[in-house]
Design brief:
335 residues, alpha/beta, TIM Barrel, ten-stranded parallel beta sheet, 10 strands, 37% helix
C-alpha cells in the first residue's frame, strides 16, 4: 500500500527537479479523497515554500467604475442580468482613483489594482486610469489594471504609465464558459491577454470556482493557464449573491476549496497563487489553511461589491502562522 504522505511529498520533489506533471497525473490529483487531503496539501505547501519561502504576496483592488455592465456573467452583481443593489457610478476622477493606492504605499501591500465594470473601458477612460496609476510610487507599490477587453494601444498606454501587470480572468474552462457568459467569447479574453503580454505587461489570470464546473474543467483551465504562462493566478470562490443568475449554486465546501488551491499549486508550481474573493464565505474555519494548501498570495481589503477582510486582520493572520508579507514590490520576476 502506498504511503500517501510520502507519495505527495515525492511528487512535489519531482516537480522541483523539473518534471512537468502531465494531464493524466493531474487529473488523478483532483480525485484525491478527502481523507488524504492533509498529505495532499503537504506536497503543495512544500512547493509554495520552495518557490516563495515564508513570505506572502499581498494585493488590493479599487472599484473605479461600478455597475450597469453590458455583460451577462452569471456570478456578477453588476451583470446586465442581475437585480442587485450593487453601487452604480461612472469612472472616478484621477484623484479618486489614485488616492487608495497612495494610502497603500506605506503598508506591506505589494500591488494596487484599479478595476472597472463593463465589457471594456473606452480609450479616453483608460488614459484616466493610466494617469492615476502613474502617480503611485513604483518603488513602494506595484500597479495593475483590470479594465476588461481592451486593445493594443490601451495596453501600451498603461505600460507607458508605469503599470506592470494586467488582470483579466478567464473565469472558467473554455468548455464551460457559455454556461457562465454569453455576451462575449473565450477567444476575446484570450486575445486580451495576448495584447497585454505583447505590451510588456505581466499577466494576472485565474478564475472563479463553484460555478458548476467539473473536475475535468478545472484541469482544462489549469492547463490553459500553464500554456499562457501567466504570472499570477487569482483564485476566487463563488459567493452566491441574491439577484444574480448564480445565486442558487452551492457546489463548494471548505475541503473542496483547499483541494482546488493545492491542485493549482501542483499544476503551476512556481506561479503566484493568490486567494481572492469568497475565501471567508467558503473556507469558513479552514480559512487559515489556504497557505498550507499552497497559496502564496492574498487579496486584502474589500472586493468589488462585497466586503473583504481588513488589512490589519490579514497581517495578524500571517503573524499567527509564522508568515510575513513579501518585502518590496519587486520581490521576484513573477511579481
Amino acid at each position: 500500500m502506498i504511503d500517501k504522505r510520502l507519495y505527495f511529498l515525492k511528487l512535489a520533489r519531482r516537480t522541483l527537479a523539473g518534471e512537468v506533471l502531465d494531464a493524466v497525473l493531474l487529473r488523478g490529483l483532483l480525485s484525491t479523497p478527502e481523507e488524504d487531503l492533509l498529505p495532499f496539501c503537504a506536497g503543495a505547501d512544500l512547493l509554495r515554500e520552495a518557490h516563495f519561502g515564508r513570505t506572502i504576496h499581498l494585493c488590493a483592488i479599487h472599484n473605479g467604475k461600478s455597475g450597469r455592465c453590458s455583460e451577462d456573467c452569471s456570478f456578477c452583481s453588476q451583470s446586465i442580468r442581475a437585480t442587485t443593489d450593487a453601487p452604480v457610478y461612472p469612472l472616478q476622477s484621477v484623484e479618486e482613483l489614485a488616492a487608495p493606492g497612495k494610502r497603500l504605499e506605506d503598508t506591506p501591500v505589494n500591488r494596487y489594482s484599479i478595476v472597472t465594470s463593463g465589457r471594456g473601458l473606452p480609450p479616453e477612460e483608460t488614459r484616466r486610469v493610466a494617469q492615476a496609476l502613474s502617480q503611485i510610487d513604483p518603488v513602494r507599490l506595484s500597479t495593475c489594471a483590470s479594465l476588461g477587453i481592451i486593445g493594443k494601444n490601451q495596453m501600451e498606454a498603461l505600460k507607458a504609465a508605469g503599470v506592470t501587470r494586467y488582470h483579466h480572468n478567464l473565469e472558467t474552462a473554455a468548455s464551460h464558459f457559455a454556461a457562465v457568459c454569453t455576451t462575449h467569447t473565450y477567444e476575446e479574453r484570450l486575445r486580451t491577454l495576448q495584447e497585454a503580454r505583447r505590451a510588456g505587461l505581466s499577466l494576472c489570470c485565474g478564475g472563479i470556482f463553484g460555478l458548476g464546473e467539473s473536475d475535468d474543467q478545472i484541469l482544462e483551465l489549469a492547463l490553459t493557464l500553464r500554456k499562457l504562462r501567466v504570472d499570477a493566478v487569482p483564485v476566487n470562490f463563488l459567493t452566491p449573491i441574491p439577484g444574480t443568475v448564480a445565486a442558487g449554486l452551492r457546489h463548494l465546501t471548505p475541503l473542496r476549496c483547499l483541494k482546488i488551491i493545492a491542485f493549482l499549486r501542483y499544476a503551476l508550481p512556481d506561479r503566484e497563487i493568490i486567494v481572492c474573493g469568497g475565501r471567508q464565505h467558503n473556507l469558513k474555519e479552514l480559512h487559515p489553511l489556504i497557505f498550507y494548501a499552497g497559496a502564496s498570495g492574498l487579496m486584502t481589503g474589500d472586493y468589488l461589491t462585497t466586503a473583504g477582510r481588513r488589512l490589519d486582520n490579514d497581517l495578524a493572520l500571517l503573524r499567527d502562522l509564522g508568515l510575513t508579507p513579501r518585502p518590496g514590490s519587486y520581490h521576484n520576476p513573477l511579481s
